[in-house]
Amino acid sequence: MSVVRSKTTQSLREDLAANVRRYRAQKAPPPAKPLSQERCAWEAGIDRTMMSKIERAKTNPSLDTLLKLANYLNVSVADLLTEREATPPPTRPEQSA
Fold it and tell me: Domain of 19: which CATH number?
């Protein structure tokens, strides 16, 4: 688990933005189109401009807003704020000789 207390507010906003985008994209299973910001905001019960500001790391959302988003995306508030480790690139299968 990452240590949140050593983070700056900007880095927390950036982690939140990346996580909200990722969880929003996962909300609609392939091959469906990713869920739009507007639809996600409406379903979560927050303003669409707030959703845009969150995903651009331009605002400090309230705990109520974080809770609404987390509940709609079926994750915890901690999941939204946690820094994600970089995922390694996919490995290629070995070519047969």
Answer: 1.10.260.40
- The answer to whether the predicted template modeling score (pTM) of the entire model surpasses 0.90 is no
Structure tokens at 66: 């974080």
Local structure of residue 31 (DSSP, 8 states) = T
The count of C-alpha atoms lying within 13 angstroms of the C-alpha of 59, restricted to the half-sphere facing its C-beta, is 13
- When pLDDT is averaged across residues 19-45 and rounded to a whole number, the result is 89
Phi-psi bin for 82: left (phi > 0), alpha (psi -120 to 50), beta?
beta
> What is the C-alpha separation between 72 and 95, in angstroms, rounded?
43
The total of structural domains in the chain comes to 1
Are 4 and 12 in contact, with CB atoms under 8 Å apart?
A: yes
